[in-house]
Design a protein that fits this description.
Length: 148
């Protein structure tokens, strides 16, 4: 088993997730499938991730307020963030804290959840910290451990 390191995926904000999955699927010659369930709806967003392409699409849920809606209204569609794979997400989170950047949310999926969302055998560890969007980050930045 190995642990990936570096850019895990870029996060693209789109108004319409279905249209975004079609566009980026055509552009990258791949298929996107919506990630159902999970925490995304509690943030007022829908999500589709294609880990092979290294792209996550997020769109606001109609009629719900979200940070994403405000971002899209201000900047329009396109790149809004990045997920970095690191060897030790907690150590990287602590390093961010020494620079005044806190954590807003943490995902820690067990193997059953990983298998359900990404397919059996895709990961043995999926653990992410969402960092505050403030200088010098100014966008969605996640630090994660992704064991394969």
């Amino acid at each position: 088993m190995g642990r990936e390191r570096g850019v895990n995926r870029v996060i693209m904000g789109v108004w319409d997730l279905d249209a975004g999955m079609q566009f980026y699927g055509d552009l990258l010659q791949t298929t996107f499938t919506e990630a159902l369930g999970g925490e995304a709806a509690s943030f007022g967003v829908r999500v589709s991730i294609n880990l092979e392409a290294g792209v996550e699409l997020v769109s606001p849920i109609e009629g719900r307020e979200s940070d994403l809606r405000a971002t899209l209204e201000q900047r329009g569609e396109g790149p809004i963030g990045v997920v970095f794979a690191v060897h030790d997400a907690d150590a990287s989170r602590d390093a961010a804290a020494t620079h005044g950047i806190g954590t807003t949310y943490t995902l820690d999926y067990d193997e059953a959840t990983i298998a359900d969302r990404y397919g059996p055998g895709s990961f043995t560890r999926f653990y992410e910290h969402f960092l505050e969007a403030k200088p010098p980050l100014n966008g969605t930045t996640l630090l994660g451990e992704f064991d394969t």
